[in-house]
Amino acid sequence: MKASFSLPFLVASYVAAHGYVQKVTIDGTEYTGPAVDSGSTDGITREVSTQDPVKGATNSNLTCGPGAIAAIQVADANPGSSISFLWTGASGSAWPHNVGPMITYMTNCGDQSCADYDPTGTEWFKIEEVGKTDGTWAQAALMSGTAAEVTLPSNLAAGNYIIRHEIIALHNAQAEGGAEFYPSCTQLKVGGSGTGTPSDSDLVKLPGAYSDTDPGILIDVYTDSQNDSYTFPGPAVVDLGGDGTSSSSRGICRLKKHPTANDTATLAKRKIVASHVSRILRGLDFSFHRH
Asked: Looking at residue 226, what is its pLDDT?
């Protein structure tokens, strides 16, 4: 007998899951937590109050995530440092979404530690953006326990910085307000002898840089799934000079396998399920999923 209830349950469960940054790794040093809504400020990443996305490009939570609270620690980094972000569900499950860009911004906290800095109304510059290659979104790799890896600009001036890694999930973006924003803020102290600073034209506010009708935010990603063209929202990636500029160019992604990911058999099952669900989603009307 055909179980007609199973498909809606599978799709509803898939799209209901969300997530957060569980771990940040800087030049091989791991920093875990805090967990969602834990009440903890320990660590270098600002705690968020829910794994749910930020909805609406003018939402004040777009800065660092829902109810973000400053962490008490700051991590050391240098120009050219490798920083990876492990995104998971709040329960530790795999990241659930596979369409949409990942974008990285930074802001300078001035002379004070970023542990004491309020980023409300601050100005950010973009150091990286990744979309899709050969029809596959870089975000999809997160579903198998892969961490997104970013490299700080090679000529970044020393100072106190917040690095903001953002996922924009576009599976419901066919309707205005349907895009899901997942921002996460981590506190750094950058050393070295770099001299690169952004120009005024590189700086944007978050919220402020996006509109709900931007072509990279209001988009039906399922109508042209094989086309690698995508218009990233926000400013261009900054050029700070030196031996290199930003960590990556448009559409190129470097992803790092997290050492505690599940074994090969389990990951293979996840990929099969993800691929199956993705095919299902492309054929469905998402209006009943919006939240």
From this structure: 55
- Counted residue by residue, the chain has a size of 291
**Amino acid 16: pLDDT:** 52
Rounded to whole angstroms, the Cα distance separating 10 from 24 reads: 31
The answer to whether 73 touches 42, Cβ cutoff 8 Å, is yes
- Whether residue 142 contacts residue 148, with contact meaning beta carbons closer than 8 Å, is answered with yes
∠ CA 49-76-142, nearest 5°, is 50
180-190 and 75-77 beta bridge pairing: parallel
- Beta bridge partners of residue 85, listed in sequence order: 24, 148
Q: Which fold has domain 6-286?
A: Coagulation Factor XIII; Chain A, domain 1 (2.70.50)
Q: φ, ψ for residue 225 (rounded to 5)?
A: -70, -20
Structure tokens at 23: 């771990």
Q: What is the DSSP letter of 156?
A: B
Instruction: State which residues of the chain have pLDDT below 50.
Output: 1-15, 244-291
| pLDDT value for 134 | 87
Q: How many CB atoms lie within 10 A of CB 288?
A: 10
Amino acid 289: pLDDT:
39
The model's pTM is: 0.81
